[in-house]
């Protein structure tokens, strides 16, 4: 008996203990799989023990197949830790722990007793947990984002990211070691600003490898829409537009204001100035946190940068947005029967593409369109009847259509003359030409009058000549008769 034990002990020393400890990093709440494989695969007759920190049994299986759980690993008869029975035949006794908790982190040992062999494998389970406190921070108040690893891996490095971008101590946030006897993690601490809203990721680098990524969303109460400064809103001249400004619901706001920031040299206009043509949008009458404004007909002058702001809890929130006004410009060529339409935007920095389409409305009320060309400038034959009607210039950004401008070509505009936009340019010429024509007509009339008068003077001498001739003829005839 004793001999057997000593022999067993020796084999354990010789074959069993593997120096390598497997590291397993798992996000709190996920499923943890602690590997344990025996080679060569033994029939399921092996006895298997899973123990934590050399102490309590987590799970064990006797040669007979009977299974036991440690008292803390089974709740209401449902075990949280077990080895899938189907894998036993392959010698796989990996321990599955569902809904892993921080306190599950630690050293585990898997011991497989198969005949005379004792195989022991060590696994360190490290549970990574990220949390935000308070869960929904309000602007201007303290916030902390912590990334804990239980147990803490000596020499591990934490990398923080906000919306995929590396985030070192910035925007008033700084990372400090989590207070405690030993280091257990790091905390990003600071004041909540809109700039720290987003997905926070804690990346654990250990032994030169990324062990795990844990992400938590963080939303600071503030302005929900538009979500970023200098958001562009596109509107065609004459169309209606809404400038959005929606605060987080339930935010207690004081003095929300709109102002237009003048471009260039002029200083920002005084607060409480709302652009004259803008009125609260219909949606804002229902919800106090919706401070959007609308305008029924956008003018060229409405183009520019606007700021919507409000104060919540002593903290000023503001957002700027840019109204980009679109219009089309028409230049008619007199020599060639063409008209050139140009799509004009007050800011085209985000426009990647222009497309001109010809829209025809059927008598049925349905409309069909024909895509003509891409590009900002469109040249068409204005005499062609099929070109009359509505033309739309659609402009696109990286994320799709931004807006459109429409232009109307009257039917047979070549015959009916210049349309509205053309007149202003040509009025001078037309007046000049008319004046010349009148002068020319007056001169012609004068010439005609002179001609007529001269004609009248010569009428009578002509008659005289005729009378003379007749008289002379008669004289001659009389003379001849006298001779005969
Ligand atoms: C786990 O094992 C390592 C050595 O492998 C040891 O340094 C560490 O203190 C152990 N942790 C616990 C919680 O027992
Ligand atoms: C944060 O993550 C969620 C889910 O993955 C995603 O839908 C959302 O767009 C992300 N937010 C940001 C700001 O990247
Ligand atoms: C008008 O509608 C009728 C059927 O409703 C259809 O057959 C016809 O093609 C339509 N006309 C045009 C010009 O689209
Ligand atoms: C132009 O934009 C308005 C508003 O978005 C839309 O209703 C209209 O159908 C568009 N017209 C064309 C020709 O794309």
UniProtKB/TrEMBL annotation:
One of its GO terms (molecular function) is MHC class II protein binding. PROSITE patterns: IG_LIKE. Residues 1-19 form the signal peptide. The chain crosses the membrane at residues 430-448. The keyword Iron does not apply. It comes from the Eukaryota. Gene3D superfamilies: Immunoglobulins (2.60.40.10). One of its GO terms (biological process) is positive regulation of ERK1 and ERK2 cascade. SMART domains: IG, IGc2. Residues 261-293 are annotated as: Disordered. Residues 261-270 have a biased composition (Polar residues). One of its GO terms (cellular component) is external side of plasma membrane. Residues 29-124, 140-219, 226-322, 338-394 form the Ig-like domain. Keywords: Immunoglobulin domain, Membrane, Signal, Transmembrane, Transmembrane helix. The keyword Metal-binding does not apply. Residues 280-293 have a biased composition (Low complexity). This is Ig-like domain-containing protein. It comes from Myripristis murdjan (pinecone soldierfish).
